[in-house]
Design brief:
- This protein has about 230 residues and is an alpha+beta fold.
- It is built from 7 helices and 5 strands; from the N terminus they run βββαββαααααα.
- A 5-stranded antiparallel β-sheet has the order 3-2-1-4-5, with helices on one face.
- β1 and β2 form a beta hairpin.
Length: about 230
Amino acid sequence: MPESIVYKFHEKGMTEFTVKLAFDKDTYHILLPHDSPRPDWAKLDFQKCPNCPFEDGPKFCPAAVSIAYFLPEFANAFSYTQAVVEVETANRVIVSKKSLQEAAASLIGLTMATSGCPRTEFLRPMARFHLPFADQRETVFRSLGTWLLTEYIKSDSMGEPTVLSFDGLKESYVQLSIVNAAFTERLRSAVSRDAALNAVIILDTFALITPDNVDGGFEDIMNIVAK
């Protein structure tokens, strides 16, 4: 059975809506319905990311198709609109009052990480243990820890000496920031208001936080691990 994460939105004076996402239990790649939308703006060659590794690959961008599944719910939403958001995962339910841009950022980040896009693949282990609405410190801690564990396991499984470095993580975030910039332009053709656009901007801000911490002496988490 697939695993699921459900976002429920309760907005004052507005129609409530639900976004249910399903994931392969082994790979944790997102599973979309067969009739999931395939709009023109989700085609691979539409505002294609300049660092996209696909040449003669799929007709549609996997990350864009994943977002297209629920984007209509946000297409006409203002970024500042407040909602009570209930997130159901396999292990817990999280309820928080958030702006729609913050909620959309959480959803878009989750779907991009699990979409099969090679530029977001490094985030998939974090997505398996999805933490909605993580703040700056939580993001840095989880990102660094996940990367180190992943690198250690890869080295150990290949019988190679374990040499841990954040160089690969920093480069992955550089590439992710390029993707985020391209996606902002892609989404301009799909929405009439700014909630989804600002959501990607939020994600890009978070994409800069971890590399900055690596270069800046881990300032956001130093007091957590220092004796």
